[in-house]
Amino acid sequence: MIALPRPYLVFTGDLRNEVNAKTAYGVRDWAPESCAGQWSLPGCTIDLALPVLTPAEARAKGVKSLLIGAAPPGGALPAHWIGAVVEALEAGLDIVSGLHTPLGSFAEIAAAAAKSGGQLIDIRHGQYERRVGTGIKRSGKRLLTVGTDCALGKKYTALSITRAMQAAGWDASFRATGQTGIMISGEGAAIDAVVADFISGVAEQLSPDAAPAHWDVIEGQGSLFHPAYAAVTLGLLHGSQPDAMVLCHHPTRERINGFEGYRLPTLTQAMELHLPLARRTNPDSRIVAVALNTKGLDEAATAAAIAAAGSETGLPAFDPIKHDLSPLLAQLETL
Amino acid sequence: MIALPRPYLVFTGDLRNEVNAKTAYGVRDWAPESCAGQWSLPGCTIDLALPVLTPAEARAKGVKSLLIGAAPPGGALPAHWIGAVVEALEAGLDIVSGLHTPLGSFAEIAAAAAKSGGQLIDIRHGQYERRVGTGIKRSGKRLLTVGTDCALGKKYTALSITRAMQAAGWDASFRATGQTGIMISGEGAAIDAVVADFISGVAEQLSPDAAPAHWDVIEGQGSLFHPAYAAVTLGLLHGSQPDAMVLCHHPTRERINGFEGYRLPTLTQAMELHLPLARRTNPDSRIVAVALNTKGLDEAATAAAIAAAGSETGLPAFDPIKHDLSPLLAQLETL
Known about the structure:
InterPro entries (chains A, B): DgcN-like, DgcN-like_C, DgcN-like_N, P-loop_NTPase
CATH class of the largest domain in chain A: Alpha Beta
Organism (chains A, B): Sphingomonas canadensis
Protein name (chains A, B): DUF1611 domain-containing protein
Low-confidence stretches of chain A: none
Pfam families (chains A, B): DUF1611 (PF07755), DUF1611_N (PF17396)
Oligomer: homodimer
């Protein structure tokens, strides 16, 4: 488990590509109260509409860490960004990174951190207790987002549901399982970086015993239908013991993203596969709704996709970004 | 992937408990040609019926490594065994260990290895290429043992089938996925120690493209029904892309070993869950037989268990340790 020093100064290097800055946008959109400012290198075209601050100015305003809000192609830290990280350490900030390369593997960064006493926090290499799952039922209620593929809205759906629950006065926590989610919530476990033997054990720790009416809304990862990542998905599913699953789907995607030989399953196939696996660790687990990612569809196409999903599954369907979630909450209240 | 220096001098410390020496027995039973001798400390009651050799004598006879054939409770190396490991290094041997504690974390062992140039090979911390699965079909044929629980015969079944294939003149390889299996075959990947994101990618590397008639017989791990280890099982299943699965079962075990809240599934339930998951990466995957662990059952009880399994599943059933496997081979020849 990781707890991150906030607020952040969000750093976007010299990026010119919004897709590579998705971590920065995700944190700004979902944790604006944790984002005190933005900082970049000359040439950067990303504007998060946050106050522009140098590390020294940010430190003076109470900022705790520099967040590297970029995923450059390859996931490595570009060499010409190292000076900026060193400058932030010298200004008294910690560094938060979700890149694959550990921050401490750069000699200049390691030396600057040793001198300043700043923490180097690599989210993908985070701390968690390495223990195997127990399969023992925990108190409180849990919702897990699951999906027919990667990268189709499991995190945004979980965040939207958490926000709707909190707005309705419910006792609810978002539980992050990936790097951007962790940066948004300030804590969590990068579940895909866990040694396979311990994945359901870490998932169990992520949503511990809670008050009976408390909801943990757990960010799903991967897909049971994904030829590379299904193991991550199943370990998270077994350890989460969800009372409710929301099935996330992309109505116009036909193939698993990046795996052309693999068709997306139908919603029916997804329901049939998830239920017996989920019920192994929680016999009362059920799929309560379908969340569609209808980004780019107009109103008529969105309505048609929602209607088709509802008709196929017999479940309520919605786009969590476009639609009101109070019907879902009413349904969850009956569980 | 790991390739181990053999033959071994099998070391059993001062063990007095046969269960804790199961690695030593497994290696002796399944790779006798790799076991040149045994060595122990005063007080040990384990006798593998191998020549008793000191490390220096073993080295003179061409032994390449000391194999720590013991799993003491807790999986740690007892402090009073360190001197023996150092003696083996000084005699010119490498060290092979499947314990959780890395050999190099003991200062005396690290120093002795640095001085002798001996390798410290920790199987659970083995090398493999960290890459995600591709889901792309590979040439050659693959059989994977799967099961209703851990520790009921998946390794022994895979080894028995490999041996039967080789005895029949087939081109077949045993593919080890756990520490004892690796020590037996001399290579493999400890799949439960792989970072979750890479588990199917490592499983793909473990049974690479092969000649069309070649069989890889892959040691299964865990169970899809296991509340702690199902993720390991699914990643191995997806990456293995088995043409044939042999379903291993214990006819009298009622509960998942060590998880009292979890019943063993029926064979029917196991078939229903394995097939759709296996067919995701190999649409032609099928369960070809049931392998029962009937150790401790008399002849009549064994026959009754075999008949019940065959009747429930409609598949051939056998105990791979007690029965002739030529009917299975005849069946596999038709795939």
